[in-house]
Amino acid sequence: MDRRAEPDRVVVTGLGAISCLGGGQAAHWRGLLDGGATPREVPLPHLNMRATRMYLTPDTVVPAEPEQLGGVPLGRGPRMAVAAALEALGDAGLTADRCRELPVIMGVEMGNADTHEATRGPDGMGGTAWSALTLTAAAVGAAIGSSAGNVSVGNACSAGGYALTIALDMIRAGETERVLVGGGEGVTRVGMAGFDRLGAADPLRCRPFDKQRAGTMFGDGAAMVVLESATAARRRGARPYAELAGAAWSCDAYHPTAPDPEGRQVVRAITEALAAAGLSADDVACVIPHGTGTPVNDVVESRALRRVFGARTDRLPLLSLKAMIGHTAGAAGVFGCLTAALILRHATMPANAPVDQDPDCDVWLPGNAPVPLHEGAVLVNTYAFGGNNTSFVLCGAGWK
Description:
The chain has helices at about 25-35, 75-90, 95-100, 115-120, 135-145, 160-170, 190-195, 230-235, 265-275, 295-310, 320-325, 330-345, and strands at about 10-20, 20-25, 40, 55, 70, 70-75, 105, 150-155, 180-185, 220-230, 240-250, 285-290, 350, 370, 375-385, 390-395. By secondary structure, the protein is an alpha+beta fold.
């Protein structure tokens, strides 16, 4: 194993989450160990579509504030992002003076769309003056008192993965000592309808790698992580969850929505992320796949994993995260990072939700009991329309 020099290392020092599993990263972990959530009917009128369910965050844990930013109402996504950010900062032990110079990078797909939909009404009439959809990073920055850059990354369902890699590069380049990275998505009929019209929405549940899978199913929520240089974290006595050891991205350049069936750029993203981490395929102990439940994507990813890991794929455990919390769109990559950090902290991968596995998806999804992981790295994949792929690798921080 070829580990990187200390100045190049970037560690995860704080976590925050709100999702269908509850409020807080502890509730997220307990919910995964309990087998995940159950989707519910979306309580919106006039959902004239085949798939009308989501993995919904309970209203009891969705904060009511902040209500607005600069006079623009904030929906569930930005409000949940602010709450998750405050939890992550408290978890990392970052004081207000450090937050003033803390950049915020958010993966956001639909952002504040629910407030636009509410003001325009179910028939598309009425409404208010135009306002930006991508207010989430600005809302988080304002809430924590940051005067550094607040950036929204909009690469569809891999937005969170791109946000993490940008933050990783910023810290390694010496531009900043730490970055707050996250994603937050609310309920949006536009997002649901888009996937429904594409025939990519499952009306029952999100069931990646299952014989009967019929598309994906969304979940709302927010995940936030504090990334920090190892030197800065050590200097202030922080205890990291994990190291974000390497990341890479690629693009299929194949089709606006369909992945390249050969999966060449998927393989490239995985192998380059491992190389950037100074690790080999043999160092990976667990994978959190993109695994949306769409028929083609799951097969392509399964075959790509077998090309990278070979015969080890038979005994390499995968955690099908979206089967437990749904597809959280722009936040999915950060939920993957947060979950990987918790897996490394607890040295355990939760058992998967039950699946009637498709033999064309030749991967291992252990479902009877949690899997102990005493050493090794966790690989996380995120993919999106337009062939946008990201992969990143977390491993044990290596010091207390």
